[in-house]
């Protein structure tokens, strides 16, 4: 959310400057976005890595490299998708950043509600269940939970209750990673 909100607040102001420079034929739209992407992606990856390190080891998670790499990868992809969503909201509402900010918060709340953690998707209407696959928050939350509590973290006689209650399994990780990559490619 923070990544999306920061982008929504800053981008409409940058659009005005970009439009003036673009009308003067200083550079093309693609060169502007490629330059912006090359500057922001390393910073986003670094921030996601620091966040992942603090959260993962600060909460006492198992010291297993593959879990930490999955956790960091999911966090980074979720942050990039949120950032791209912020750009989309900033472009749509470039003339009024108050509307962009309000719409961005509303969109994020809808995406969180579609994640199925507050109201289980099994009791939702079929359209809502289908729309939940467009929610990057659902896929990100599920992937993080599978990373932390799945992959044989518990012994054979135990079962991770949280994964059982949310009807998640290790096999969904591959599908979730596919959707995260598809959504991140789609928004960029």
UniProtKB/TrEMBL annotation:
InterPro entries: ABC2_TM (IPR013525), ABCG_transporters (IPR050352). Residues 2-149 form the ABC-2 type transporter transmembrane domain. GO terms for molecular function: ABC-type transporter activity. The chain crosses the membrane at residues 33-56, 68-93, 105-127. It is found in: Membrane. One of its GO terms (cellular component) is plasma membrane. Its main location: membrane. Keywords: Membrane, Transmembrane, Transmembrane helix, Transport. It is a multi-pass membrane protein. This is ABC-2 type transporter transmembrane domain-containing protein. It comes from Medioppia subpectinata.
